[in-house]
Amino acid sequence: xxxxxxxxxxxxxxxxxxxxxxxxxxxxxxxxxxxxxxxxxxxxxxxxxxxxxxxxxxxxxxxxxxxxxxxxxxxxxxxxxxxxxxxxxxxxxxxxxxxxxxxxxxxxxx
Length: 110
Fold this sequence. Notes:
Layout: H1 2-20, H2 26-42, H3 45-57, E1 62-65, E2 80-82, E3 85-87, E4 101-104, E5 107-108
Parallel strand pairs: 1-4, 2-5
Antiparallel strand pairs: 2-3
């Protein structure tokens, strides 16, 4: 079936082009999904309204800045949040170089 061969060739070319542009790379998708989950679970209604549809549409690539190194150790979270301001820095943010926003895990100063 000749038409099938043409469509397959076009699909392979498209996948190659898109794949080389990092649009469908697993890392940005996984990072955005993690950030969206954090916003869904812990964000305010205003934050959900502002960010979730943009993340879901691909308009906004997001990431979750949670770990301080290559292993997940929640007890090692260094930044703190007081009065809406973060202190310290994150040592490791997966996909941070491609993200338009980061959801940052921090201890809340109470």
